[in-house]
TrEMBL record:
Family label: Belongs to the short-chain dehydrogenases/reductases (SDR) family.
NCBIfam families reported for this sequence: PRK07231.1 (NF005559)
E.C. number: 1.-.-.-
Protein's UniProt name: SDR family NAD(P)-dependent oxidoreductase
Annotated SUPFAM superfamilies: NAD(P)-binding Rossmann-fold domains
Occurrences of domain Ketoreductase (ranges): 9-189
Signal peptide segment: none
InterPro entries in the cross-refs: KR_dom (IPR057326), NAD(P)-bd_dom_sf (IPR036291), SDR_fam (IPR002347)
Enzyme class: oxidoreductase
Presence of keyword Acyltransferase: no
GO terms for MF: oxidoreductase activity
């Protein structure tokens, strides 16, 4: 079972204050890692860290501020130590018909999910490559694989995430840095619960096309992330693991 441990690892998790990011942080800590969570809301991050305990820290940061990303990694390394795991989890969503989506709105999602995530990966990988050890995890989506109406910006960004992940895996894996992704299915969070409770037909449709006939739990994304960043996944790179109850293969 030591192969599934994250002892002596320090993970940076963007968007770690709530939802999937927080669940990943909790799972990492349980596996022995120290975690650093980031986000734009200081109060939420502080509250989350107080609940995560002594093996957690937080920094207020916006992944779309490219100039700040290098400074963030430098500050963490100087104050806490080197980062050996990066989880690019931060994201924004937008539901809008394509004809009503402006170029600026389209670029906004790309700046967070793709360019911002690449920026952090690039800066984090420098130290990982020097040390010959590291793991970078992107959070993809069901919309990386399937066409879903009215989310053209989100779908485009999440599809690009997979291309970025594969390219980085091909370039950095021989230098000791594995790069992978998780594609969550429909996961039960406070936000999704509220949305689906107000749209029973949509919830029914989701469950009908999910072979396991239920929504996923954030903890199930956390344990999958822990596996992919652990020694147990030491020969896995360039892969996207769907954690979706079979939704990507369901009818």
């Amino acid at each position: 079972m030591n192969q599934f441990k994250l002892d002596n690892e320090r993970a940076l998790i963007t968007g770690g204050g709530s939802g999937i990011g927080r669940a990943i942080a909790e799972s990492f800590i349980e596996a022995g890692a120290e975690v650093v969570i980031t986000g734009r809301r200081a109060e939420l991050l502080e509250e989350t860290c107080s609940e995560l305990g002594a093996k957690s820290a937080y920094y207020v940061s916006d992944v779309a501020d490219y100039d700040a990303n290098a400074k963030l990694l430098e500050r963490i390394e100087n104050e806490l130590g080197p980062i050996s795991i990066l989880v690019n989890n931060a994201g924004v969503h937008q539901k809008k018909d394509a004809l009503e989506t402006s170029e600026e709105e389209f670029e906004q999602l790309m700046s967070v999910h793709v360019t911002g995530a690449f920026s952090l990966a690039r800066h984090a990988a420098k130290g990982m490559i020097e040390r010959g050890h590291g793991s970078i995890l992107f959070i993809a989506s069901m919309s990386s694989f399937m066409a879903i109406p009215s989310i053209v910006s989100y779908s485009s960004a999440k599809t690009a995430v997979l291309g970025t992940m594969r390219a980085l895996a091909a370039e950095w894996s021989a230098q000791g840095v594995r790069v992978n992704a998780i594609a969550p299915g429909w996961i039960e969070t406070a936000m999704s619960r509220k949305a689906l409770n107000n749209a029973p037909d949509r919830k029914r449709k989701i469950l009908e096309r999910t072979p396991m006939n239920r929504l996923g739990q954030v903890e199930e994304i956390g344990t999958a992330a822990t596996f992919l960043c652990s020694p147990a996944a030491g020969f896995i790179t360039g892969a996207c693991l769907p954690v979706d109850g079979g939704a990507s293969v369901g009818f």
